[in-house]
Amino acid sequence: MRIGILTGGGDAPGLNGIIEAVGKSLITNQHEVVGIIDGFEGIFNQNARTLTLKDLYGLHNNAGTFIGTSNNCGTRGREKEFLKGYSQLKLDGLVVAGGDGTFSGLTPFKNEIPLIGVPKTIDNDLNGTDITFGYDTACSVVAEAVDALRSTADAHKRIIFVEVMGRTAGWIALGGGLASYSDIILVPERPFDKTELLKFIKEKKKQQRGLLCVVSEGAFAKGGAPEVAFTVENSPQKERYGGIAERLSSWAMTETRWESRHVVLGHLQRSKAPTTTDRFLTLAMGVEVSRMIQENDWGKAAVYKNGIVTRTPITELMKPAKLIAQDHRWIELAKQLGIFI
Ligand code: F6P
User: Fold this and answer.
1) Is there a common fold for 2-134+274-318 and 136-271?
2) pTM (global) more than 0.85
3) What confidence score (pLDDT) does residue 236 get?
4) What is the pLDDT of residues 191-248, one digit of tens each?
5) For a tag on the chain, would you pick the N or C end, based on fewer CB atoms within 10 A?
């Protein structure tokens, strides 16, 4: 078979691991693997090339994606063009590593193109899987940053607000914040009470030199809304959130007279080499994808459920974002540790 592999949407550490694992496994089993360049653009422009074992050698260690990606996942009004581009590539099927935007863009072709999906986002907010690759690496970046920042916060007796990614889901803030025992964790799923937050900070000022707050870019106070920093026209989710750490920092400094600073971790969270957990996840998912292809088991995705990599209908990945439930066990953990959440 001649199988295309495409990466769509924002990059996530582990994408290269998927390419290496799917590619190596298929080539070892005598199939041809074609890398589609720059996501959907490669289908529209028939920009693709056959990958060799030499291309794949050692890829897994690098963040980013060897074949490029694009946020432009729109196919509406261009369905015929997309199908024409796909058929000109003469593929027997397509492996897509993407997020909700990418899979929604593929919805019209689910009966026409043999598809296999791999859920991808650092945000960990995709349905159909317990975890997405890239998430563990993003949390490690957050935890490392908070641990490091605690030293300067303590040295100068300061609060530091650390803004992290995650859009409407607070998984990165919660995972990274817990792993670093952040004093405060603010997530979009739990709009915070400003009076309560102020009370907590004032109390902490009496007890410790520094204070760390991990705040999700989409977090907001009760009665408020997440602040849109700017919009990206070609993106399936146009809004980009941001600015909350800076605003909270100056507000807290004025209200508590505790000197404060803010740090935005931004795209650093997507740029580190994948952790061992993410490597193992992508390695196992990649091999599962290759098995599905060889068994002609199309229309499914390789996902992680109940401790193992398994298969689920690809339509599961097209459902709305998976947010943190109010009674999630990690919220309880944070409360038990005395973290403001
Ligand atoms: O969805 C992944 C993500 O990294 C979000 O956490 C973040 O808000 C967004 O992408 C940033 O997108 P861009 O790379 O277009 O700035």
Assistant:
1) yes
2) yes
3) 84
4) 999 999 999 999 999 999 999 999 999 999 999 999 999 999 888 889 999 999 999 9
5) N
Confidence class for position 39, pLDDT limits 50, 70, 90: very high
pLDDT for 235 equals: 86
Q: Can 130 be counted among the known catalytic residues?
A: no
User: What is the Å distance from ligand 1's center to 212 Cα?
Assistant: 23
Test site for ligand 1: of 70, 167, 232, 265, most ligand atoms within 8 A of the Cβ: 167
Instruction: Tally the C-alpha atoms within 13 A of residue 319's C-alpha that lie toward its C-beta.
Output: 13
Residue nearest to atom 12 of ligand 1 (CA): 10
Q: Determine whether 280 is exposed, middle or buried from the number of CB atoms within 10 Å of its CB (0-12, 13-18, 19+).
A: middle
pLDDT score recorded for residue 222: 98
Structure-token match 């260690």, residue found: 61
CATH T-level assignment (fold) for domain 2-134+274-318: Rossmann fold (3.40.50)
- CATH dotted code for 136-271: 3.40.50.460
CA 321 / ligand 1 centre spacing (Å)? 14
**What are the structure tokens assigned to 116, written together?**
């296999």
Length of the chain in terms of residues written: 341
- DSSP-derived secondary structure letter, 133: B
250-268 mean pLDDT: 98
Q: 266 pLDDT band (50/70/90 cuts)?
A: very high
Domain-by-domain residue ranges, the chain?
2-134+274-318, 136-271
CA distance 11 to 78: 24
How does DSSP classify residue 92?
S
Catalytic position from the list 38, 100, 123, 125: 123
